[in-house]
């Protein structure tokens, strides 16, 4: 398919904004090449995929990506029928139907995304003022998308002679249902499928049967996989980070030039001290094709999908084992992605560092300390804490030097002493940002919030 060729019966005014970016920007050749690789060998069975890609973008983009993932996984596909979207024949038989969750009619358009949305991408859930609004909207949009495909499967696909009733059926859904879909992570799917509702302030889940429908007095039922009502579905394959940032990330990983920088926040479930890791994407630290994909297995499925089907990929799989929801993955799953122009990197670097501190629940002094081994317990009846905030030369990052001194020393003396302490490290430090003399527990806690 010539996905960048001029589609019939479509003029440039009808092009989707994201297609325009890929088509027109001089720096997008790497992204365009990644897309061409994705669709190599894909059959346009309805003869409208190119037009839909250029006009509505997301649905075709998602199918292009899925096809590339299945190819990379070594699956053999039967492309002789126009439904379902993917018929995997080997080494396992699986039918996959693709769907996207879109922004509701009259909803805030994606073109409205601004710099504030971009800067908020790495805010931890516990500090997101709109966390519940984001999650509830995601659940509604994703529920509509999934249930529409369930009906289609039951009313149309099962009647097709080429659709076997005894093999797994998977719905592959990508979320584009609101401007900030990149902040959804797995939380809406855990609620929608298993009734596990995340409470970020308490860092725990509670079980629910329904959630409020935004801007109404109605509710939305959740926990679709908690009974056999949807037993025709074997699993849900899901992503909320498959968009232009994915293309840029893969292009940079392959060595193509890009005017953008990409940072991924990843979750290490085995590390209890620093569970969230930061990845600056490059050819040396690449993102893989299936990074950011999640597979949620239905414990009540008639035809269960074997976990080994995707074990050679970076898909993170969730499944029930002895009454507990467990997961398996070959990598640290992506929580969210930040994609921004290189010229803004210095502005974003400090912001990213601060959000990493908040995600991993470190105090500012502990996180930014030049010497993390320094003790943070101070007897304020006897001593005060001196904290010199400095900018490091090489990394241009905010750091601090802190130490204890007797309470009877004056502020003037302690400030002069702190300047002398900083000068000992002149080869490392660019400048002093500020000096704090902390004499009370209240002040100490205020700094370390």
**What proportion strand?**
15-25%
Structural class designation: alpha+beta
Q: How large, in whole angstroms, is the Cα Rg?
A: 25 Å
How do the helices and strands follow one another from N- to C-terminus?
Answer: HHHHEEEHHEHEEEEEHEEEEEEHHEEHEH
Assembly of the depicted chains: single chain
Mean of all residue-level pLDDT scores: 93
The number of distinct helices, counting runs of at least 4 residues, comes to 12
Name the poorly predicted regions.
none
Shape, please?
globular
Helix percentage range: 25-40%
Per DSSP E runs of 2 or more residues, the count of β-strands stands at 18
Give me the side-by-side strand order of the main sheet: 1-2-3-4-9-12-13-14
Largest beta-sheet details = 8 strands, mixed
Protein topology:
Blueprint: H1 17-24, H2 29-39, H3 49-55, H4 58-72, E1 76-77, E2 86-90, E3 94-102, H5 115-119, H6 131-155, E4 169-176, H7 187-194, E5 196-199, E6 204-207, E7 210-212, E8 219-221, E9 235-239, H8 244-253, E10 260-267, E11 276-280, E12 294-297, E13 316-321, E14 324-328, E15 334-341, H9 345-359, H10 364-368, E16 383-392, E17 398-406, H11 411-423, E18 429-438, H12 441-447
Helix pairs in contact: 2-4, 2-8, 3-4, 6-7
Write a structural description:
The N and C termini lie far apart (54 Å). The chain has helices spanning 17-24, 29-39, 49-55, 58-72, 115-119, 131-155, 187-194, 244-253, 345-359, 364-368, 411-423, 441-447, and strands at 76-77, 86-90, 94-102, 169-176, 196-199, 204-207, 210-212, 219-221, 235-239, 260-267, 276-280, 294-297, 316-321, 324-328, 334-341, 383-392, 398-406, 429-438. 29% of the residues lie in helices and 24% in strands. The longest helix is centred in the first third of the chain and has 25 residues, at 131-155. Strand 2 (86-90) and strand 3 form a beta hairpin. The protein is globular, with a radius of gyration of 25 Å. The mean pLDDT is 93. The chain has 449 residues and is of the alpha+beta class. An eight-stranded mixed sheet has the order 1-2-3-4-9-12-13-14, sandwiched between helices. A three-stranded antiparallel sheet has the order 11-10-15, with helices on both faces.
């Amino acid at each position: 398919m010539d996905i960048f060729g001029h589609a019939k019966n479509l003029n440039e005014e009808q092009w989707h904004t994201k297609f325009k970016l890929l088509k027109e920007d001089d720096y997008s050749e790497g992204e365009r090449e990644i897309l061409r690789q994705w669709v190599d060998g894909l059959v346009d069975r309805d003869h409208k995929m190119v037009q839909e890609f250029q006009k509505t973008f997301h649905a075709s983009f998602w199918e292009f990506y899925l096809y590339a993932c299945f190819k990379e996984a070594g699956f053999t596909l039967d492309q002789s029928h126009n439904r379902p979207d993917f018929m995997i024949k080997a080494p396992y038989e699986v039918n996959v139907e693709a769907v996207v969750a879109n922004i509701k009619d009259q909803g805030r358009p994606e073109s409205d995304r601004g710099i504030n949305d971009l800067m908020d991408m790495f805010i931890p859930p516990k500090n997101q003022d709109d966390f519940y609004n984001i999650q509830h909207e995601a659940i509604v949009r994703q529920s509509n998308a999934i249930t529409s495909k369930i009906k289609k499967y039951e009313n149309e696909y099962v009647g097709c002679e080429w659709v076997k009733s005894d093999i797994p059926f998977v719905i592959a859904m990508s979320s584009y249902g609101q401007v900030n879909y990149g902040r959804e992570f797995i939380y809406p799917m855990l609620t929608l499928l298993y009734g596990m509702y995340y409470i970020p302030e308490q860092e725990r889940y509670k079980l629910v049967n329904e959630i409020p429908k935004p801007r109404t007095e109605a509710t939305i039922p959740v926990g679709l996989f908690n009974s056999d009502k949807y037993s025709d579905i074997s699993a849900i394959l899901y992503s909320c980070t498959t968009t232009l940032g994915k293309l840029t990330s893969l292009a940079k990983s392959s060595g193509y030039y890009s005017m953008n920088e990409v940072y991924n926040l990843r979750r290490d479930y085995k590390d209890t001290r620093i569970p969230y890791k930061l990845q600056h994407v490059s050819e040396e630290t690449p993102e893989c094709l299936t990074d950011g994909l999640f597979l949620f297995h239905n414990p009540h499925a008639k035809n269960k999908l074997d976990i080994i089907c995707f074990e050679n990929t970076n898909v993170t799989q969730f499944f029930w084992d002895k009454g507990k929801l467990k997961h398996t993955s070959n990598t640290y799953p992506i929580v969210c992605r930040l994609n921004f122009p290189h010229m803004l990197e210095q502005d974003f670097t400090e912001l990213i560092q601060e959000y990493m501190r908040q995600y991993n629940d470190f105090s500012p002094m502990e996180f930014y300390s030049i010497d993390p081994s320094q003790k943070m317990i101070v007897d304020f009846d006897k001593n005060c804490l001196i904290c010199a905030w400095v900018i490091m030369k090489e990394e241009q990052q905010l750091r601090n030097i802190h130490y204890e001194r007797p309470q009877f020393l004056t502020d003037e003396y302690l400030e002069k002493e702190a300047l002398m302490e900083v000068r000992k490290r002149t080869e490392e430090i660019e400048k002093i940002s500020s000096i704090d003399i902390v004499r009370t527990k209240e002040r100490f806690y205020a700094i370390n919030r």
